[in-house]
Amino acid sequence: MSVVLWLFGIVFGAIGAMDERAYRRMRRVGKPATGVVEDRLFQTGSSKPTAVMVRYVAPNGSAFSSKLVPESTEEIPQIGQSISIYYNPQNANELYLASSLDRPRRLVKDRALLWLGVAALLAAIALTAL
To answer: How many folded domains does the chain comprise?
Structure first.
């Protein structure tokens, strides 16, 4: 049982930590831009779009077209809609909706995987100590 908890904790803790790191990096280095939705992307077997293709122009005049996966399907914009984004100047394919970076992250909801990983590791430690 403790082995499962160790694995669960390591996997979910690592995924949560990588997500948190990407969010903080984008807050630090992300540049604002306005993009236009070119297409809505669907997952196989899904009737709701899960991502969009966004075309935007960086301040230096370079045009990019990248996939954007919003935090929830309610945030999926329509084709042709203009949206505010942040992009990573070192990796033009890394995009975030401006609304997801402008608000502070919620302690539990936005960091759920990280907390699950930490809780599983703590439980594994407790079971190992017994």
So the answer is: 1
